[in-house]
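Quick one: structure tokens for this chain, please?
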Amino acid sequence: MSPFVRTVQTASGATAVQIVYSNRRGSRDIEHIGSAHDEARLELLKAAARQRLAAGQSELDLGIGGARRGAGSLKCLHAHVAYALACPGYELGEGVIAELQPLWPQVCCTP
């Protein structure tokens, strides 16, 4: 199982942010990131935990959802494109559109 970020309440009333590393056999390692008594500090700790998880993970050059230029097809992101076309300013959908240029095919795919 992949590591994940969780929050738990401490005895002092603070919220602790932890990264949990577990495997299929049930053993766990827990890394304590920090504890917060207010929402602003909690968000900073969560961001730090996410950065720690992302460190060391390389990024594949696949574009958004695997839609690199020339991929030929895209699955499951069509709703984001439709929403971006209907509501300009939707960043994810606009990112998908940018990756899929040309937006309209030269020929229709249905008879």
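The chain has a mean pLDDT of 79.
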